[in-house]
Amino acid sequence: MTAGASASTAAPGVVAPTILPGRTVIFRKEVQQQLERISKADILIGIPSYNNAGTIGHVVRAVQVGLAKYFPDRKAVIVNSDGGSVDGTTEVVTGTTIEDFQSILLHHRVEPAMKIVTPYSGIPGKGSAFRTVFEIAEALNVKGCAVVDSDLRSITPEWIELLLKPIMESDFDYVAPLYHRHKFDGTITNSIIYPLTRALYGKRVRQPIGGDFGFSGRVAKFYLTKDVWETDVARYGIDIWMTTTAVANNFKIAQAFLGAKIHDPKDPGADLSSMLYQVVNAAFELMETYKNEWKQVRGSLEVPTFGFRYTVGLEHVNVNVDRMLNVFREGIENLRDIWIEVLGSGDFRDIESLMRRSNAEFRFPKGLWTRIVYDYAIAFHKKKLPARHLVKSLTPLYLGKTASFIKEVADKGPLEAEEEIDKLCMVFEENKEYLTRSWT
Amino acid sequence: MSSFLQMIFEPLKEVYLKFINFLPNLLAMLIVILIGVIAARIVKALLVHGLRAVKFDSWSDRMGLTSAMRKGDLWSKPTEVLGAAVFWVLIIVAFMAGMSTLKLDAIDSLVARFVLYLPRAFSAVIILVFGYIIAGFVGRAVVIAAVNQGFHYARLLAEAVRLLMIVLVLAMALEQLQVAPEIVVAAFSILFGGIVLALAIAFGVGGIDAAKRIIAKESLDRKEKHQEEIDHI
Asked: Beta partners for A19?
């Protein structure tokens, strides 16, 4: 079947949806027919999308070339799990083909990957899109899967090799991405998610919420056994959920160096506190689920890393530290009651003392930040406040910490910035006893 | 002499006969009240036990009910307060039911009016409790959202929203209790309208410069936020 002739879903409502035996996701009849026709595959690449017509063509081409170049003798399927795009995203996916095999250094024509384009059901969000991908992976009994974002501009065919080879050839179960990012980017990852997951589960997965992952069919099936699809996991908590579930359940983990991650600029109006809520809420929920696992862990271990590391020239990133510190100071003035309730008066006094420093000499001590994150996790566990209020009230503190980090590494290179993050992780690990003791 | 004695004993006899006739009613009242007290104690114990099982105290802490009670100088646990409230409501009901066994017209009418008023009183209490909780919840959401946007008067804004909601809740509760409903509606309209008008005048006339500064700062903040290219995730 040529890519151009690959079947896609018909207009909504044309045919009745069906539920595969033993599954909860409803597939349209033509998707069901496609699955029956394909019957079995070795590799599945999932691409969640919502109005990404501008970028998804490049992503599909990179995936097709990656599959043709690195897995030419494997039966592969590309699944576009779409959230109801109205800009022609699904048509772009269906119509994207490799025109010239010579240009990608392939001397013989390779059978192109089959494509399934289907809308997902359930709560709108990346998690629901992934659920459909997992269901199709299970239906086709694939050995290896990878998921890549549809707004990527820097994806190359090598990403497919790097995300899948450890699974197809080295028996790994989960491959997390490792990107080169600007030292100011990924601050939720750098100051909360990476130090926290590393201290909790003892594995140094540097980009636990990277967004592009490889995983085995076994892991996809395992994910489907979990009843999380009506929670925030179905939205943007999916990345941290996938990584933590794989790590906490002792699947074999690796990382793959993918180079720079450049994607479409995010909506500048997107609310930071909502993003923070979705990610941190999912991480705290997972602490409840895996409390017996993380309480036993001390220290952390490196995970095997694949891919050739190279330096990437990254564009300058504009930041406004004064605005961040302004929000932090407003927090001290206005959220006093909540912070005292969550952190206790001792740590609140330490935070207040930071307010007296000028912007130039503002620094957020690593130990204080660690206790803040742990105290928020404990407050979440003890349900001191409604989860949304609790996590969103962390935003000014997070901005204070981010401003401090930006100042600390302003004149430093990427390696020194990385060392600072590593030092923070060590403080998280050293203070873990406090978390374990307070978790009653 | 005998007629004199008859004059003395006749009323006493009548009183005695009336008392004898009344005695079963009195006993019935005492029994009803006693059963009511026992039932109220049992219901209170069951309720407190059930509320503790579902961790009502923790829920009250989260919803701000406990801190509201502390502000009102009420230091018992919410579970105990609710148990005591239900106990006393049941005691009043038992007392009224007991009184009605006396079969006195005045008391019957009082009991009837009390029973008819009970649903209104209950609705008013529900409106007050839930209204207070919702006002606290919304106030906290407003202050967090405003701070996260870097708004300088976050707490003032949240308190204003909370106050307006409490005024609305009080008016609704009083209207439910039918306490001078016309006056309540009129007072509420005047108060609510007055607050809005005062804010409009203060902001529109007295605070033109302040309003300009706030709007300019907000627009600058938005511009700066849009210029910021940091990718937090």
From this structure: A26
Residue A145 pLDDT exceeds 50: yes
CA distance A185 to A406: 10
CB B162 within 8 A of CB B139: yes
Residue pair B150/B221 in contact (Cβ under 8 Å)? The answer is yes
What angle is formed at CA A159 by the lines to CA A155 and CA A160, rounded to 5 degrees?
120
pLDDT at A233: 76
Which two tokens mark B169?
A: 């809740």
The domain made up of A17-306 has a fold known as Spore Coat Polysaccharide Biosynthesis Protein SpsA; Chain A (3.90.550)
Chain A residues with beta carbon closer than 8 angstroms to that of B62: 383-386
Q: How many CB atoms lie within 10 A of CB B138?
A: 15
Instruction: Nearest chain B residue to A396 by CA: give it.
Output: B148
pLDDT interval class at A16 (50, 70, 90): very low
Average pLDDT over residues B64-91: 80
Amino acid, single-letter form, for residue A168: M
Q: CA of B105 to nearest chain A CA: how many angstroms apart?
A: 53
Full 3-state SS string of B165-177: HHHHHHHHHHHHH
CA A54, A60, A62, A63 torsion-angle sign: positive
Smallest Cα distance from A188 to chain B, Å: 5
User: Looking at B103, B127, B162, which one is the last position of a domain?
Assistant: B103
Residues B130 and B205 in one domain: yes
